[in-house]
Structure formats: structure tokens, C-alpha cells
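Review form for a predicted model. The reviewer records the input and the model, then writes brief findings.
Reviewer: anonymous (R2)
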Amino acid sequence: MNFFKSFFASFLGSLVALGFIFIFFFIGIAAIATSATIGSSATVNLQENSIVNLDLNKVINDRAPQLNPFEESLDLNPNVTGINQIIGSINNAKSNPKVKGISLKAGFSGAGWAQAREIRKTLIDFKSSGKFIYAYADFLTQKGYYLSSVADSVFINPVGRMEIKGLSSEVLFYNKFQNEYGIKMEVIRHGKYKSAVEPFLQDKMSEENRMQIKSLITSIWETFREEVAESRNISPEKLDEIAENLLVNDPNEALQNGIVDGIIHEDEYLNRIKDAIALDHSSEINSIDSDKLEGQITPYNKQVDDRIAILYAQGNILYGEGSETVIGQKVFLKAIKEINENKNIKGMVLRINSPGGDALTSEIILNSLKQLDSLKPIVVSMGNVAASGGYYIASNADKIFADPMTITGSIGVFAALPNLKGLADNLGINAEQVSTHGNAMGYSMFEPLQEGYRKTTKMAIEKIYEKFKSHVAKGRSMTLEQVEEIAQGRVWSGKEALEVGLVDALGGLQAAIESAAALAEITTYNVVEFPMIEEDLGSMLSSLLPLIKTKIFYNPLEKFTSTYLDLNKLDGIQTRIPYHLKIE
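Model under review:
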């Protein structure tokens, strides 16, 4: 018996030791990889007649993710970049005399519509320097073509495909599913346009929801049509005809209609670039990937003390810590405090890319921003989505910028609670309660929602809705009646939001930075980014799990189940827009 005890003790000890060796081994590799990466990016030397490879076929956030050395060393780093990195590298390429042009690949871009437009405007500015942009794709999605259309020449593979078909958005409804399987969502809401919970209440789209979605996608399409028409020197009416009749699915059709400039393989495309820089076809192109260039929006000047802070608020708003992709009050209150106490920071841009979320967290963050605003100007820059809770935290800013393709507004409130009573009955599960008072149980997913609980939740929702409206009224210099006209949960495009007074101007992140500097009365400044999130060893390791899962598993039904499952995870009263308002 002692032998086996000793054996298992030694065995477990060896496993623990091996575990530590494994961790420290990868820490060492990660440190080497990180230092090598930092060193190479800092000392990169461009050669004459260089071409920058700008690959936008990846997920694009507003802010590039921080480097996780474990992901880097295991080659598990997600294919993600940020608007800040992209804009910075394009601006760098524009000012560098050794760069002659950009080779753009954006056929399957993961940018949102507002992000795509911001990148596109930066590329147009790049061309103003006299340098060229060539674009190539095997397949061009509609958004990919929107980005590529700014190029001097657009090329596609001879057997490639492309699409210009107009915009559409699909919403799934679950009411019959709930009745069939006994799983339902108890919904309490305010706002006739609060469509985030509509799929759980009925079997088809309400007229109000259909109207707001149609208005939204029509506004976005108009921006797409006008800007592509200008870049390609064709009429907007021609683009409508192409979309209506699907005239350019085939490369030859695209060429005939002036949508692309050539149908060639990639090796010939590279020869076209060589011709543009007067390089012999047998020679290699001096090229560099855009992410190897300096990625700051504005070059950092050590001689300048004044700063404009960019506080990135991207992701769902949830009560708790917060992270790079989750807006939680702890991280953001800390960041706002740091900005407030830094005497060199003269103003702030709040960059929002969020569909909203927890109402309490939104209120906490807004209150902290109000305290900062009394000391330093705050300008909001809206990304793809800055709606509901995302608009809540924006409402008190000195100035609000939105892109014409931004989704914003959605001033409304709801609560959704899962109820499994029908499923439990079908499975033979019975929940019994013992209480001292009639409403003591509160909420149980195994019982119908108690009237007392429903009544108090409804009162809380109404109170938050009125609070939301009062913030908007004060921040936008409107009456409560004027806010009510544009509220009730309705979503607006950035262009529509300007017309109804929810934003002050159309423009991207760069315009917001310049506006913050003007309000702070400074002309030279550096840009610093917040929140500064320090990950510990545990969080870095835990972040590997979803990446490994993504590498190994794929769920083809995920797009159909994610809305229902995500809503089931929510706690508290929500200021949130529809989860998957995907516009294609």
C-alpha cells in the first residue's frame, strides 16, 4: 500500500512539475517572440519603390487587440486588427516617400459598414498624395467591393465571383418554437420599436420594425451607391439597375459594366504593380505588410506634452470588470479617472462601437463621464453601432460624430427573462416553492412570472426610460416631447441621426480627434489610447481556450441559435438594440 501511495505521489508531483515546465517554456518562447516582434516593427527599414500590402480580409475592431504572447507563440493569435492600426499604417504610407502605392485585398473584409467607410475615406486621402492603389480579389463581396472601388484599378480572378445586389437584413422569430418546446422568454419592454425582443413575442415582423429596418438599410445603400458611383464614374441609377437585375455576378459582366478594370490571375496582377513602379517583371517587388508599419493614428512626438485621449468602448455593456471587448464599469471608471488626473491630457474622444446592454452600467459610466466633461471636452466618435446603451453613454458629450452608415439611436428599454415552465412540465419536472409573503419568490424560470414581479419590473423600465430621455434631452438641447418623437427604441442610420438631431456631424475617428483638440484649444498634440488593460497570467491562458475551440470545432447552427442563447445570458434591465441586425 505504501508503495502505491509513494508511486501516485511521485506521479502527481511529476505532472505538476511538467505543468510548470510547460508554462514557463511557453512564457520563454512568448517573451522571445514578443521581443523579436517589437524589435522588428520598431526597426523596419523600407526600401525605395516599396508597396504596402493592405489585407482587410480579417475581423476588424475599432482598436487592435493587445498582443497575447501565448497566442503569438502558439500561432493561435486571432486574425483581428483595429481601425486605429489600419488608419495609422495608411497615414504612415502616405507620408513615407519610399512608398509608391498600396496593394489592397478586401474581398471578404470583416469590417462593419461604418468601419469600411472610414477606411475607404483614409484610402482616398492616401491617393491625394499622388500614390496609387491597386485592388485584387478572387471573390468580391458587396462590402469588399465598396472598399476596393476606391482603387485606381480593380482586378478579379477569371473564375472569381462578385456581388452587387442591394442590402438586406434577416430576422428569425421564435414564438412557435417556444410554444412547441415549452421554452419561452418573458418580455417586458418600453418602445414600440424595441425589436430586440420582438422575435420572442410574435411569429412575424411588426410594421414598425419593418419600417425602421427598411429606412436604415435604404439610407446605408444610398451612401454606398453614391460613393461607389463617384469612384467608378458611373451613375447611381446604373448601380441600382445592376443590383436589381444582378448584372455583375460574373467577372466578364463586371468588366462590361465598368465595375472592374481587369480579369487576371494574381501573378499578372503583380506584373501590373511592377509596371506601375517601372520594375522589370523578373524582379521582386519591395513590399511590406501594413501591420509592420507604425500603427498610430498620428505620429508620436516626444517633444509635445499635450495629449488627446481616445477611450475605446467596444462590445456589449455588462455590469462588472470589463475588458478590451466588454464595456464594464470597473475598467472604464479607472480609465476615466486616469484621464481626469493626467494634466497633459487636454481632451478626450469616446469611440463607441456597442449595441448597448446593462442599463445600470450605462448610467454609472455616463455619470463618470459627466464629471470628466466639467474639466475636459469630450467628443464622441460612433463606429458601426452606437445605439441604446451605446447612445446612452454618448448623450452628454460636447459633440457627437457619426458615420452615415453608423447604426444609432434605439432609445428604449426592455427586460427578457427565460421561462422553462412548459419544458419542465413536458419532462416531468415540478418546482415547488415555500414563501413567507405573496411575492417573496420573485422570479423563477420554472413558474409563470408573478404579477408583482412583472409590475415592479415594468415600473423600473419606465423609470429608466424616462431617465434615458432626460439625459438625451439635456445633452442634445431638446424637450422631452422632441426626444419621445425620435425615441421608443427606433434605430437610425448616422445620416438620419444627423437629420433628427441625435448627432452633430458626420465624420470618423480622425474628425473627432481634431474636434476634441479644437475644443481644448490645442494645435499640436499626441494621441494616447485607453483603457490600459493589464492581463495577468491566468487571463492570458484562459483566452487561449476559445481560440483552440474555434480551431477545432465549428457549429453550423450557431448563427441560428446565438440570438436566443445570448439573450438567455442577460441579467437586469437592458438598453440594447437587436443582437444580429446583420446587413448584407
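Findings: Residues 2-42 form the longest helix (41 residues).
Further findings: Residues 15-43, 69-76, 537-565 have pLDDT under 50 and may be disordered.
Recommendation: see findings above.
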